[in-house]
């Protein structure tokens, strides 16, 4: 849904632009953190706008590790970064 067609979406995008990238579908509100290393949940998905705005203001804690799995040593030893955000495993598939 475009921000031009949805004034509430545009308002939220402007209000939280420094912290979140916000979009929506017909039934869901979705926010992705601008900072991937933030100490809170990196993604919010809600069907209730009031709950969604509450989480934008006070996001839930991050679940699991505080860093991307791509930064884990197992991946770092096996993957080659082709370009920003794109990785390749040179190991051929197992037969």
Descriptive overview:
With 95 residues, the protein is an alpha+beta fold. The protein has a domain at 7-57. It is built from three helices and five strands. The longest helix has 9 residues, at 7-15. The termini are far apart. The model has no long low-confidence stretch (mean pLDDT 85).
Short description:
The chain is of the alpha+beta class and 95 residues long.
What is the succession of H and E elements?
Answer: HEEEHHEE
Cα gyration radius (Å):
17 Å
Question: How far apart are the first and last residues' alpha carbons, in Å?
Answer: 44 Å
Average predicted confidence as pLDDT = 85
Q: How would you name the oligomeric state of the polypeptide chains in this document?
A: single chain
Task: Figure out the total of helices.
Answer: 3
Keywords:
95 residues; alpha+beta; three-stranded antiparallel β-sheet; two-stranded antiparallel sheet; 3 helices; 25% helix; 22% strand
Any chance you could write out the topology, listing elements then pairs?
Blueprint: H1 7-15, E1 20-24, E2 29-33, E3 43-46, H2 49-57, H3 73-78, E4 80-83, E5 86-88
Antiparallel strand pairs: 1-2, 2-3, 4-5
């Amino acid at each position: 849904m475009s921000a031009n067609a949805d004034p509430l979406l545009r308002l939220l995008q402007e209000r939280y632009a420094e912290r979140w990238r916000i979009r929506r579908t017909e039934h869901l509100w979705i926010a992705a953190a601008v900072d991937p290393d933030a100490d809170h949940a990196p993604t919010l998905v809600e069907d209730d706008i009031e709950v969604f705005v509450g989480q934008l203001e006070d996001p839930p804690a991050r679940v699991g590790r505080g860093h991307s799995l791509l930064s884990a040593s197992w991946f770092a030893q096996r993957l080659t970064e082709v370009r920003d955000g794109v990785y390749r495993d040179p190991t051929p598939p197992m037969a």
